[in-house]
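ok so i was messing around last nite and threw this chain in just to see what happens. nothing serious, just curious
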Amino acid sequence: MLRASRRPAGIVLLLACAVSAVVAQPKPDALKAYREGRYEEARTICLAELEATPGNIESYVVLAWSLLSLGRYAEAERYATIAYATVRKDPRIVEALGEASYYLGKNAEALKYFQAYVNLLPDGSRIGSVYYLMGEVYLRLERLGHADIALRTALQYEPGNAAWWTRLGYVRERAADWTWSLQAYETALRLDPAQPDARLGRDRVTDRMRR
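result:
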């Protein structure tokens, strides 16, 4: 009888342990996965979160970032558009829409969203990259003066970015602004002597100035 009376208590204890183990399992963290470069995992987590809570703006933000990092620009645009239209016009969503538009070749839309981001969050964490991408859009459109201004503004936020200095040199080279183009290329090479585009650009401009 004594053994029989102990069985229910043992079963209850085992069940309690099982429930505790389930409860103790950490909730999947989409932002942590994104920051660690596990973009597909972050995407999956965000989709599950949105299934449970359709209006979760944080899930939409991390989902858009993850899709952009995966190069799935049309999907990023689609989900960011849903968030923008149905949840709120969060600056991070606005920036994601600009970035997706840029990579999809939608220049007018990219500029619209990038300019909106600048107005909404002038000190945002993506502000340097936004100005850089604006410069690239203006370069596509052959608006070289605007491209120069946008790239110079980007470099105010990241003055040590050799790749951006190289692009500024190229914009100035396209505008036949030889002296300032050379200066930009040389700055890029001081920061990173291995920049092949900066080295080639410097050689082209130097040769042009000797004529």
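not much to say yet. The chain has two domains: 28-97, 126-211.
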